[in-house]
Amino acid sequence: MRNIISFMHMSLDGFVAGPNGEMNWITVNEEIFDYVGKRISKTDTAMYGRTTYNMMESYWPDAGNKPNASTHDIEHSAWYNKAHKIVLSTTLNDTTVANTTIISNNLPESIHTIQQQPGSEILLFGSPSATHSLLKLNLIDGFWLFVNPVILGQGIPLFAGVHNKINLQLLPTSKRFECGVTELNYSVMR
Question: Where residue 95 falls among pLDDT bands split at 50, 70, 90?
Fold first, then answer.
């Protein structure tokens, strides 16, 4: 069965975005891009909530073809175009986008069906609302977190609406980057 791993940048105090969705506090650089690129190159499926999907879709399909595209833009654009995309949305209904599945109802059953199909882990990119929904349904198998050295004080929390204890196991692949960001990998203990 394919695992669903939530991939998020977060502040030290547990926020994944500022109060108005700001993400200008997130530290990204070539070291992080290269590190993330190696892992996602082994992943064939990306999951998004509608807002994150729209943001990704507006940039990544053509990012690698733009003049002065960075190595990261070229590589991630190629991966994005090849990866199967799963979008959790009750409002999006455009099913004409190639290599994209939109799940708008029967979330547990639809995701379980996808998890039974051949393929790699499913990375849930960003998408705090989708993460909150999947957490409530106990459908997240792990967290791939990039903890940024900043305290926001307020914003969109990663673990909003979690009312039951979730035991996690820290995996030995965690890493500290020169910029002060710390990557933490956790698996959900079932």
Answer: low
pLDDT in tens, 167-180: 999 999 889 999 99
Q: How many domains does the chain have?
A: 1
Beta-carbon contacts of residue 184 (< 8 Å; ≥ 6 apart): 143, 144, 145, 146, 147, 170, 174
pTM: 0.92
Residue 61 lies in a domain: no
Q: 137: domain CATH number?
A: 3.40.430.10
Coil, helix or strand at residue 137: coil
> Cα(166)–Cα(190) distance, rounded to whole angstroms?
9
Residue 19 lies in a domain: yes
Q: DSSP per residue over 42-111, as a string? A: T--EEEEEHHHHHHHHHHHHHHTTSTT--HHHHHHHHHHHHSEEEEE-SS-----STTEEEE-S-HHHHH
